Each structure stands twice: as structure tokens, then as C-alpha cells.
Amino acid sequence: MKRIILIAILTLGLSVQSQNLSNTGSGPAKTLTLKDAINYALENKADAKKSKLQVENSEYQIQEVRSRALPQISANGSLTYNPVLQTTVIDGSAFGQPGTTIQASFGQKWSSTAGVSLTQAIFDQSVFTGLKAARSTREFYLINNQLTEEQVIERVANNYYQVYVQRQKLTVIDSTFKNTTKVKDIIKGQFDNGLAKKIDLDRILVKISNINTMRQQVLNAVQIQENALKFYMGMPIEIQIEIPQTAFEVSPQSLSEIPDTTNRTEYLLMKKQEELLTYQKKAIEAGYYPTLSLSAGYNYIGQGPKMPIGAKPSDGVYWSDFSSIGLNLRVPIFTGFSTRAKVRQADVDLRSLKVGIDDTKLALDLAFANAKTQIDNSLITINNQKDNAQLAKEVLDNTRNNYIQGLASLTDLLDAENSLTEAQNNYTSAILEYKLAEIQLIKSKGELKSLLNN
Hints:
Blueprint: H1 2-23, E1 30-31, H2 34-44, H3 46-67, E2 72-81, E3 87-91, E4 101-105, E5 110-123, H4 125-192, H5 198-233, E6 241-242, H6 265-285, E7 291-304, E8 318-330, H7 338-404, H8 410-444
Helix pairs in contact: 1-5, 2-4, 3-4, 4-5, 4-6, 4-8, 6-7, 7-8
């Protein structure tokens, strides 16, 4: 009787857990296709948002560099008080007193100056190079934004399929529990009529208890995997999601054409880095070139024994203006080999990046070859496991009938159930391996955004 109560509790527990899985959180579950998940992630994931902000920031960087080629205008002002005026010794012959020395104090106790100054670069090689580099920087961030979006798509797709696998395992366990419960009912009836042994009933009760424990573990795995998917989407954890079964159809991929690696975002990004390092080297080499600039200024000065601000000539304060216009030429002659050292460092960085570009191209080619191999193997495995699962189901049906008729042992029946569960899980895992390989194949072709069309 206790065992019967235990079975009822386990059955009720499985039903409640199934309901909790679909009803946890607020509101109904949100049906989520792969396309929906990717679009949500591109709009809400922090990585995608920050990448878009970098593109926006690149426009401001261009404006900053462009400002160096525009006139620089500034206003200035000063107010000075001289408690002690400097005394200057002058030869008296300049004032008709040869052979004497005159001590004179020049200046006023107070002076105030206000003016405007302008500087305009006429020739500065570093400015010209900086403008070109700024435009390349914008292109760099645009490519980087595309790469970030592809990385978001890849992570979301991988986790999306893994959620499916965990849910499928849960479905398999529920089916196994249902079948095992039917066997338990048969054995219970036989035991009550004296046609079955007590040990057989005990074994089936232990089997049901183990199934319940396994289901709880898978249930936890489902929740953890769903939370991971929501994280990679930037979705609040409390939102419940439901993944439609139709999203996991296995469709053959085109494996004949070899993708052009030079069109991959990773490769394009490194080539743009190479361009930026080239400009960086040219900007340093600009230190060898002379610079020419125009400067101009207009100022107004007031001096007197009193504070000049607001004072008049009647107060002993006099105001006057002055201005200047000039050309400034700077020709570098010797910098202690500093510029040469910086140029050589930039050249090493450039050569190092070129090595990295070659290695990246090789890695991308390898990724395509591996994905192609995995696709081929996964298709074979899927077909084999699908047939194996069907055969295992037929074996279980036959074994159950034989057990009822007394032609098979309980051990044979339990082994047949285990074989079916294992075959179904293997089939599900084979589909996951195929879908993950499919993502890598699509990625190797540079077509991850095509998932948005599914």
C-alpha cells in the first residue's frame, strides 16, 4: 500500500513540475522562433548596443581630427598689479647727461589686456594623415559592429538549439515515465493475483523513482539553459519562452562551394586594422616634415596707477590697441632619433598584424573544413539514430507483449526501455550536433545574418 501511495505522489509530482516549467514567471509563455530571438538580441543585448555607440562615437572622432585643420580662435584677458616696479639702469648720455647713470622705473602699477588670437595650420602632414585615418576609423567601427552582430547571432543560435535539446530530453523522460507506469500497473495487477513476484514490483518502483530523479535533473538543466539563452538575448530572466518544434528541421546544406575567406568580417576587420596602422606609421613619419602656420592677434591694453577696468585718462589710465600677423615655420633637424624609433615600432606593429592576418585566414579555412566534415558526419548519425530509435521502440513493444504473456523477463523489459530512452536521446543529440555544425558552416560563408530570414 505504501508503494502505491509513493507512485501516486511521484506521478502527481511530475505533473506539477511540468506545469511549473511552463507557468513559472508572470504572464503566458512567449513563443520564440530563432529569428525572433536574434532580432531581440540585436536590439537589447549590451554588446550590440555598445557596438552601435562606438559607430556613433567614430563620427565625433572624425570631427575632432577635422578641427585641427580649421582655424583655432581664442579670446584672452589679463589683469596685473605690480606692487614694486622694476628699476632699470640707463646710460645718462642718452638723455644729454654723459658720464652719469640714470635709474628709472618703467611700467605702471596696474595693467590690463584683452584680445583675440587666431592660429591656422597651412601645412601639417600629420593633420592630413589624421583626416584619412579618421575616415578609416569610422569604417573600422562599422565592420566591428557587423562582427559584433554576427557574434551575438552565433551565441543566440547555439543556445537556442541547446534549449531545444534539453526540452527534448525532458519529453523523452516523460514518455519513459508514462511507459514505465503502464508496466507498473500490469505488474501490480499480476502481483495482486499472485502471478508476479514482489521483487518485480519493487524493481519497477525503484525504476520509477530513478526516472523522477533524472527528470528533476533535466528540468534544472532546461531552466539553466533557458536562462543562458535569455542572457545572450538581453531578455529579462523572468520572461517565459516557448520554442516551436518546427524550428529544428534538418535541411541539407550546400557543401560544394568553398567560401571566399577575404569576404569574412573577421578578415575585413584585420585588413582595416592594417590600414589604420599604416596611417599611424605615416603620422609618425610626418614628424620629419616641416610645419607652417599662420597666426594673428588683436589686443587692447590699459595701464595706469589705478585699476584700469572702468578708469579713464583723467584717472591717469590710458588705453591703446595693438595687433600682429605672422607666419610660423618649424623645421625639425634633430630629435635624438626619437622619430626614427617610433617609425620602426610602428613598422613592427604593422608586420606583426600581417602575420596575424595570414593566421586568421588559415583559421577561417580550417573552420569551414571542420564544419563541412561535421555536417557530413552528423547527417549520417541522424539517419542512423532515427532508424535505431524506431527499432528500439519496436523492440520495446514486442518485449512488453512477451512480458505480459510470460515469454520475457522483467529484466528484458527494463533493458528494452533503457535502450529506447538512450536511442531517443542519441537522436536528439545528433540533431544538436548537426545544428551547431550548420551554424559554423553558415558562419564560415559569412552568411550568419541569413538566419534572420528563417
